[in-house]
Amino acid sequence: KQELEQLLMMETKNYRKTIKFYQKLLQKERRSKGPETKSMLLKLRGQLQEMKSKVQFLELVKKYIMYAEQWGVESPVLLTVIHNGRTDTMDVAPTDESSLLLYYNTEKYQCNHQNGARILQAGTPLGLMAYLYSRNAFLEGYVQQFLYTFRYFCTQEEFLQFLLDRISSTLSSASLDPSTSLSKICNRSFYILQAWIEDCYSVDFATNTDLLCTLKEFISSKVAPLNGYGERLLSLLEEASARKSGSALQGYSMDKCEEEGEEERKTLHSLCKKLSEDVSRKAGLFFRLQYNFNWKLSKGVGPIAQYQRERLCTISSVLPKPCYNNFTEFPVSFAKADEVGPYLLIEYSVQQLCCQLTLLQQEVFHKCHPVHFLNSRALGVKDKCVAVQKAVSTETVSLKACNLFLSKCVQDQYLLQLLRNADSISTWVAAEIVTCHTSKLQVSLLSKFLLIAKGCYEQRNFATAMQILAGLENLIVRQLPAWKILPAKVAEIMEELKAVEVFLKSDSLCLMEGERFKTLPTIPSAHVLAMHVQQLETGGFTMTNGAHKWTKLRNIAKVVSQVHAFQENPYTYTPDFKLQSYLRQRITCFKDADISSLAADNSANFHQIPAEKHSRKIQDTLRRMKATFQ
Question: Could you confirm whether the keyword Hydrolase appears in this record (predicted)?
């Protein structure tokens, strides 16, 4: 807390100094009106906005710590949490904490923490749920990590019943002295429930109507009449339902909670996530990127900004504006896109295509949730992303054995849709190339896709970059004669893309490292991220005494939490709806295409033998055959 106070004071001081300097520079610019002063003002304006956001964030964190200290309980009180929520159907309650939770101490940890706090190593399902009430559960990131991973050891219904039992047994005491343990348990239960709704409504409540009805009925009948927090929770459920159904604005907004009353209610859990991520970064866990890979990002910003200012009038102006909300919902007729063919891809610049493909990818990525990447083996996701639907239908028996969640847990399958979209883009890339009727057009299109992939990964859109790479690595595409006449500098991009793929597969947290992660938007490769999670899921989840390994669950939660971290910093390119319409139509047109069949109908896909050389070969063959009969 003292460190936070010092950091807040320092950032506030720097912010005020920068404001004074900006005001002086502004007066100087009004007098001289020089280009250098103007460019300096633009840079300072951006720095001021960033510094202001940092100060506001630290103030909110400070406010959050007050809540955490107010409603958290000390370790000995965790048994009270369990005893107060007991029902007749529960097993015999434990008498000591050691039967619920296992800790380990390290000298290094004790040196860094004056209170000598212990590190949670493992626990029973009941113990792990009870630890949500500990004083530092929010600050340590435990609550967020628990909400992502509890499905490995308990169902949504069991977790909800645990919270409701604690609220029922302590609700009458919540209005009394706030310093009592019962009052703290009740209020912490409300905050945990709020965090669950805010963070996991789409994967737990929206997909399970019985769970949602149970929660609404409990709040309406038992909480709302006695406590004002009931109305807040009901309002939160309505807002979450509206966002899920699409009645609210789509996409992520950084400025949703501007009113003070709304801030207190909505931003608590997002603060916990941001704080835990910030603490992790400060601990030095994720700082290896600049040493592992030399990113080249210098060309990413300038041309894009120029493209946004200077929109070209092209053939695409005749295409209709799209009117669909989902990446997979496209118009039935593709006549206009077919008429234009691949020539529109040649007409648009690399940066234009790169920006619009990134926005299309962002649209589907922002609909996914960290939990979607868990237990992907049970959905049929394998190391090589092929025919996800077929795998699910033909290997149902074996996939049931791969299910790591409890059998009654309802699992959202949005990851399959995300992977099918990725596969559709890869197939589209390959199809566009093999349907070019001249070698010259094939070379142009190969160059275009290679440069688009390079632009995407330079802008940290690794998803589209890897999808294009998969399309270019198609067996039919790799055998095209056009590769031999491709300019050497362009051909080198292929090896560069393969190096990026190796880098992404090397470390599950590589994209969270460095300063660029904090300032630049990022879209990870869904398949690569799912494979990293699968690797962490390998091995047992329980110890010999039956306790669940929290260290293993925490590592899984850290990896999938990248999804929310990346979604908080979206791309802000200007959308070109006409170009997006064309791209959507072409992708859908080719998403189920058979590349080998398309390639067989095009002579440009085969190595051509010159007529004279071909005639000479026939004559030589006939001469040899004639000699055998003499």
Answer: no
